[in-house]
Design a protein that fits this description.
By secondary structure, the chain is α/β, with parallel strands linked by helices. The chain contains eleven helices and six strands.
Amino acid sequence: MNPTIKIIIADDHHLVRKGFRALLEELDFVEIVGEAANGQEVLNLLRSGKHAQVVLIDYEMPVLNGLETVERIQKEFFGVRTIMLTMLNSRELIQEAVGKGVNGFLFKNASVNELSDAVRRVAEGGTYFASDVALTLLQPAVSPEAALADRLSEREIEVLKLVAQGFSSAEIGKQLFISPRTVDTHRNNLIQKLGVNGIAGLVQFAIKHKVI
């Protein structure tokens, strides 16, 4: 008889942990050796001598989130493999998780068959990324400019650039051939749309999103 794959389940939602436990208990090659509600509890379990080959770990947890915990596991526990669990289908999150050393990536609505495949492959030293994850990674990255264009009109982006460069409403009006009052209207709309605090907030937003 082949040895079982020992697993720790980490999620701050009790019902989610129990749901994954129920799925895993259907697999005769799995042994659950611990549960944790946050990343620190995962580390405590491993430091106390709990031997796990695979940690199923939620991304969003208090104290230490999933990515921070994966990073610590990589440094402290050689050979312990990790599968990230999330409902967030985010290219940036997936790429960051891979960069931290995650060995697998599953969405929380995974079937028992997918969970079984992921656990086996990761425990054997391979990697597993759900088909939806692969599709997300294959999608072209959205540039900051394109993302901004989805939120703001062309005129609003022009006004934002000039506000961030320190021009007054009168000066912006002359450059864009509109009245200072119209500039003020665009500026106020920008503040509302972007949820920032006044002109200083617009400047910070423009710098962060490389508008200037």
